[in-house]
Structure formats: structure tokens, C-alpha cells
């Protein structure tokens, strides 16, 4: 179980590179509008529906004598290569913006970068979806929850480790240039060359390590432990759910609609800061790239603590619905602290606020998922969870783009950068309060009695 978790740990490391390093470089050092940055990076999340095809492909066709492992390895190799290519295109985009402005050629580089991130997302899907199917293949009902728990925890461990290693490989505070608002690093060739070398090395070393982890985690596992050939096809697995079907299932009745609205608003509100948190540390707190990357370690540690402790300490005492409510409220409070820390420009206060934000995120996520599992009848749980898994991926993409767009609007409205970034975090906090409003209207009894019948009728109509 631990060895399988190494793959997820690698995915956590990769997330640091795209939404912990590259976003900061593009917004602060290269002075590219946050909407453009968030839009290009979010392309890897917008292609999430492709995992339907990759899941079915791994069911039907073997690669190298295996249904899952070959896909995992090829996908890992491709997303490692794509991440390095994305950095090279990023430098070209920054140079074009600095030397020519927003010309046809510059927009061409934007389109190319978006395309590379779409390919990066497809490679992720082609690797992670067969890996998720492998978890089903090698486990039974008795140990599947343990396996999922370990693998999910390893993802958060990867985020923490990735943040620490990345910070170590990037320029130290004493040698790197402080972020200067609206001044591109291309105006300082010496600093640009120094930063390019450091970033290129980081995006060469870590993706190679992640590919190694993918091979190490899955080598020999499928041939020894897989029960795929002896089982019938798994009905309603996550990668079997299409987006139109997911939306039908999630709006099947009033109660499923309310709960889906809660999950949707919660997810968007939880991830709007993904593309802007590191630039916030750079512009408002004067942190260099290594310092802002390390911020992810505080968030990741808090999330890991929240996820691991909530099921034992909070849910048994106050219940799943109240746990989710408590988590949402605490997220809103932690985001308020993130804004307040900007007025003091105190990095330690920001780190503490992010630790609390991560802890609250862990509580919220655990409470919401536990409630979802508890609400849905066993006969339709796979369908509901699969539908939500796909909808969540799209919601995260929307959240990333929204965060960047709101930041650009804030920069137009306010001269003070704290207010500009604060607009993003304040909108997130308001979203969390709105999520609580939806959750308060979810009736567990009505959900259990109506949702099962409504979802079943949708599936029957599709069969007809």
C-alpha cells in the first residue's frame, strides 16, 4: 500500500511545479496577466473528461502485457516531458510580452502554452486513471478504504516534500531578486539568466524523480496482485461516468441538487487561490521564489493534519454535516487572516494563516466526503461518487481561472496590491459562507429516500 502511494506522492510534487512555481514566475517575474496565467495552467484540469476514454482503453487493451502499468508509465513519462516544455514556452512568452507587447506572435505563444498544458492534462489522465483502476483491481472491500486513505495521504506528503525540495533548488533569499510590481525580469539579463537556470534545473530534476516514483510504485504490482481478469467489470467506476451523465445524476432531485450545489461552491471557494497565493507572497511580502514555494509546505502540512485527525476527533463528536459546516467556517476565518497578514506584510503571520487554511481544508474535505458516502445508498454510491469526481475536476479548473480573473480585476480597481489580492480571498470566504447556506438545507432523511430513486430512474432511462 505504501509503495503504491509513491505514485500519488509524485503527483503532489508535480502540482507544486505548476501551481506553486510556474504561476509565481509568470505573474510576478514575467508580469503576465493573472487571467492568462490561470487560463493556460487550468487547461490541464479542463481536459479531465478524457479520463473516461483512458479508463475504458486500459480496460480493453493491454500495453506490455498489462492493463494498467503500461499506461501509468507512458503517461508519467509524457507529463514529465510536457512540464519541461511548458517552462521553455513560458520563457518565450515572457520575452515576447516584454519585447513586443501583446502582438499576434505573443498570442501564439499563449495558445502554444495552453496546448502544452492540455497535453500535460491528457498525460496525467492517461496515467492517473489507470492507476485508480489498479487500486480497485488489487484491493477488496475489506482493505480498499485503508488503501485509499494511505494513497490520499501520500498525495499531501508529496505536496509538502515537493515544496521543500523545490525551495531548496531555487534561488535563496540572499541571492534572488525581490519581486517588483509591474517590472519584468527581462529588463535585468543577469537576474533572468540566473532564474532561468534554476527553474530549468528544477523542471528537469523533479519530473525525472516523479517518473522514477511512478515506475517504482507500480513495478510488478499488477502481475502479482491484480484480480482484474477474475472479476466482472466494475460498474459505475469513476472513469465510466460521462460529464452529461454526471450532471444528470447530481441534479436528479432537489436534495441531490442542493448537495451538489454545496460541493460545487465549496470546491470553487477552496481552490480559487491556487494560481495567486505565491504571487501574493512575492508582490505583497517581498518573498523570492524559493520562499513562496515553501508556503505550500504549510498548507500541505495543515491539510494532512486535518484529514488524518478529523475522522477520529471531530466527526464522532459532532457528526458529518456539522463537521463540514465547521470546516467551511474555519476556512473563511483563515482566509480573513490571509488578508490581514497582507496589511502587516508579516511572512510568519501568512505562514500561520496558511497552516490554519490547510487544517480547515482537511476538515472540510473529510466532512464533505464522509457525508456524501453516508448520504448515498450503496446501490448508487459508485455512480454518485464518480459523477462528483468528474464535476470536481471541472470545478477546480473554473476556480483556477476565476482566481486569476478576479486578481486582474482587483489590480484595475485598487492601487494597493493587498486589496487586489484580498478581493480574491474575500470572495473565497464569501463562497464558503454560501456553501454553509446550501449545506444547512440538505435534509439527510429526504436525501436518502429520494436520491436513490431519482438516480435509479436516470440510469433506467439511459438503458432504455
- Tell me the strand percentage band: under 5%
Unreliable stretches covering 5 or more consecutive residues: 177-181, 232-236
Category by helix and strand content: mainly alpha
- Arithmetic mean of pLDDT: 85
The helicity comes to: over 70%
Radius of gyration, in Å, reads: 22 Å
Number of E-state strands: 0
Largest sheet: none
> How many helices in DSSP terms?
19
The ordered H/E elements are HHHHHHHHHHHHHHHHHHH
Précis, in short:
This protein is mainly α and 464 residues long. The chain has helices spanning 2-29, 34-41, 43-46, 51-60, 69-100, 104-137, 141-169, 189-218, 221-225, 243-250, 254-271, 277-285, 289-313, 315-318, 320-344, 347-375, 378-413, 417-440, 444-463.
Search tags:
19 helices, single chain, mainly alpha, 464 residues, 0% strand
Would you give an account of this structure?
The protein has 464 residues and is mainly α. Helices cover 81% and strands 0% of the residues. The protein has helices at 2-29, 34-41, 43-46, 51-60, 69-100, 104-137, 141-169, 189-218, 221-225, 243-250, 254-271, 277-285, 289-313, 315-318, 320-344, 347-375, 378-413, 417-440, 444-463. Helix 17 packs antiparallel against helix 18. The radius of gyration is 22 Å and the shape is globular. 52% of the residues are buried.
Amino acid at each position: 500500500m505504501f509503495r503504491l502511494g509513491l505514485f500519488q506522492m509524485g503527483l503532489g510534487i508535480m502540482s507544486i511545479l505548476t501551481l506553486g512555481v510556474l504561476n509565481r514566475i509568470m505573474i510576478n517575474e514575467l508580469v503576465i496577466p493573472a487571467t492568462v496565467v490561470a487560463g493556460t495552467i487550468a487547461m490541464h484540469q479542463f481536459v479531465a473528461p478524457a479520463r473516461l476514454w483512458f479508463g475504458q482503453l486500459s480496460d480493453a487493451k493491454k500495453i506490455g502485457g498489462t492493463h494498467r502499468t503500461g499506461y501509468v508509465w507512458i503517461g508519467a513519462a509524457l507529463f514529465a516531458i510536457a512540464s519541461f516544455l511548458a517552462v521553455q514556452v513560458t520563457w518565450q512568452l515572457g520575452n515576447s510580452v516584454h519585447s513586443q507587447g501583446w502582438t499576434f506572435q505573443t498570442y501564439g505563444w499563449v495558445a502554444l502554452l495552453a496546448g502544452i498544458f492540455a497535453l500535460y492534462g491528457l498525460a496525467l489522465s492517461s496515467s492517473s486513471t489507470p492507476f485508480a483502476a489498479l487500486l480497485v483491481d488489487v484491493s477488496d472491500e475489506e482493505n480498499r478504504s485503508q488503501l485509499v486513505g494511505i494513497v490520499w495521504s501520500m498525495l499531501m506528503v508529496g505536496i509538502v516534500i515537493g515544496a521543500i525540495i523545490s525551495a531548496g533548488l531555487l534561488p535563496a533569499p540572499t541571492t534572488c531578486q525581490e519581486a517588483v510590481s509591474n517590472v519584468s525580469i527581462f529588463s535585468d539579463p543577469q537576474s533572468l539568466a540566473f532564474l532561468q537556470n534554476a527553474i530549468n534545473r528544477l523542471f528537469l530534476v523533479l519530473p525525472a524523480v516523479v517518473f522514477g516514483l511512478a515506475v517504482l510504485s507500480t513495478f510488478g504490482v499488477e502481475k502479482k496482485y491484480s484480480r482484474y481478469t477474475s472479476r466482472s467489470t466494475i460498474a459505475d467506476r469513476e472513469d465510466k461516468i460521462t460529464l452529461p451523465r454526471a450532471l444528470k445524476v447530481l441534479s436528479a432531485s432537489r436534495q441531490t441538487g442542493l448537495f451538489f450545489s454545496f460541493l460545487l461552491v465549496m470546491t470553487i471557494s477552496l481552490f480559487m487561490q491556487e494560481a495567486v497565493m505565491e504571487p501574493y507572497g512575492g508582490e505583497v511580502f517581498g518573498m523570492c521564489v524559493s520562499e513562496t514555494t515553501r508556503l505550500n509546505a504549510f498548507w500541505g502540512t495543515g491539510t494532512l493534519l486535518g484529514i488524518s485527525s478529523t475522522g477520529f476527533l471531530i466527526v464522532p463528536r459532532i457528526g458529518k454535516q456539522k463537521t463540514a459546516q465547521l470546516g467551511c467556517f474555519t476556512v473563511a476565518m483563515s482566509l480573513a487572516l490571509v488578508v490581514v497578514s497582507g496589511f502587516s506584510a508579516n511572512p510568519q503571520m501568512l505562514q500561520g494563516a496558511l497552516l490554519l487554511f490547510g487544517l480547515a481544508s482537511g476538515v472540510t474535505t473529510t466532512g464533505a466526503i464522509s457525508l456524501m458516502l453516508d448520504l448515498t445508498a450503496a446501490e448508487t454510491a459508485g455512480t454518485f461518487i464518480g459523477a462528483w469526481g468528474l464535476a470536481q475536476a471541472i470545478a477546480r479548473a473554473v476556480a483556477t481561472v476565476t482566481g486569476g480573473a478576479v486578481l486582474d480585476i482587483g489590480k484595475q480597481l485598487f492601487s494597493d496590491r493587498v486589496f487586489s489580492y484580498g478581493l480574491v480571498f474575500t470572495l473565497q470566504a464569501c463562497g464558503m459562507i454560501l456553501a454553509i447556506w446550501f449545506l444547512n438545507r440538505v435534509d439527510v432523511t429526504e436525501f436518502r429516500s429520494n436520491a436513490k430513486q431519482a438516480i435509479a430512474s436516470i440510469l433506467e432511462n439511459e438503458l432504455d
